[in-house]
Amino acid sequence: MFSKLKVKISQKIHNNFYSHIINFKNKKVLYSFNKIITNNSVKTNNFKRILIDGGFYNLGYFYRLQLIRAAISSEKTKEKAYIWDCNYKICKYLLNFIGIKDITYLIRGFKTDLYRDADNLAKSIKKKEDILNIKLPFDVPGSFLYDVILKMQRLPTVDLNDKNLKKYIYKFLYSINFSKNILEDYKPDLVILSHCLSYQCAPLAWISAQKKIPVIILAGDFGVSRFWKVINTKDIYFGFGHPQKEDLDSLSDHQRQKILKTGKEYIRDRVSGQSSDISGRFAFQGKNKSLEIFGNSKNKKTTIAIYSNTFYDYPHTLGMTRFIDVKDWILSTIKTASNNKNVIWLLKPHPCDQWHGGITLKDILPKKLPSNVILLNYDYSGKDILEKSDALVTHHGTAAIEFAALGKPVLVTDIGWFHDCEFVKFPKSKDDYLDLLTKKWHTLIDLKKAKLRARLFAGLFFGIPNWQKNLVIPDDCDNEKLREKLPIIISNNQKLIKKEIKLIREWINTNTNCYHTYKMLNSSNFTTVIK
Hints:
By secondary structure, the chain is an alpha/beta fold.
């Protein structure tokens, strides 16, 4: 008992010391954040009470938070933030520094009734499918809970024998209860979140949408803001900011030609190892081995790559319904695909598996694979795999854009973020998908059309308006670089930041879901985020 107390005291001292160090290091970037607010020229707006997620400690997120605050806040706007159950002192200091004083906390105290409910729910779960079908307050989907458990366990599939299962369910129920209470008590007319997944954010996004309170997710990727909206509960499965089929179809001839060129150039540079995002760096950069594993058999058989997803990074984000999780998908795919002896199947792990840590693709596979199924190591060249494969199977990986843009057929598993954009083969059902694996599905695709559509999608997604090239910030995963670069970027580009703020203000009142897409559709010259 005494030793546990010593550990808690030691941890508290360490956390306090760490918080002071980080707050000191962040001073310069925080001063630069406050320069953004000086660009605010809004006197009145439609948002009087804004609820803000202040618990995601990431400097890129707080930069984006300042942009949207400058776009919508007026002197009459009230702001309330909530902090998660981690980084309390850092986030509170940061929020106070940028002028947000009304702060509450997600986890406060212990609720016996919720713990009892969590215990009953845990006892009712006999198989993994029970979690997906579980009845939760406000009809919050069981898939959200499944992904939260998976993330906490850091496993490829949920372990029902985990002694902490009840604890995970309790945290989720607590968040649902917190979301209900804060929405009813504070009555915001806008909710701003860093994500719409995780137990810290998913329940709040869902219940807000149920109550018709608009939600804006302050996502960022490839160095630029990629905000998107949740108006209805179905919007939560949008996943992240990306173009949609109707956006591709709405382009003028002038935009189409320029965006096609941008997409072609980006894919070329990305595959050559010049992309700046973390997945692109792992996939195509570094000294990777050349793919020389076929012998003479390559001359006789088709080679199809199967690109795996990360296992526990919220697999149901985009609405997965045909498989329980990534492990279920990949094992079902291998089992069926291996029966097609006319194909050599190459299994490629997700490039970020090692960065995430924990379980890898190799860990979930049988020790002996079928003779026509080959597991590739992480050090094989992504470019070499792409060039030597005839086609690709993926759940909804970015590789689909790369393969299709280079003229190679792609089969996806389920709904995702580009399944209907006419550059991949989208099965009608789970059975249809598995059946296609046994056939020559790669011959059923109009490759010329798919190539053009993929390049168009790539240009609209990866490209940026030419005016924004000096506002590209480091990747969100690197707080050190953000701390160093953001003050310089903000100080040197006040006019461009003012333009960004104006566009955000306009976008909020449009029907375009993704802010980045809105920027692209309202621009005439484009570039790409590479360096």
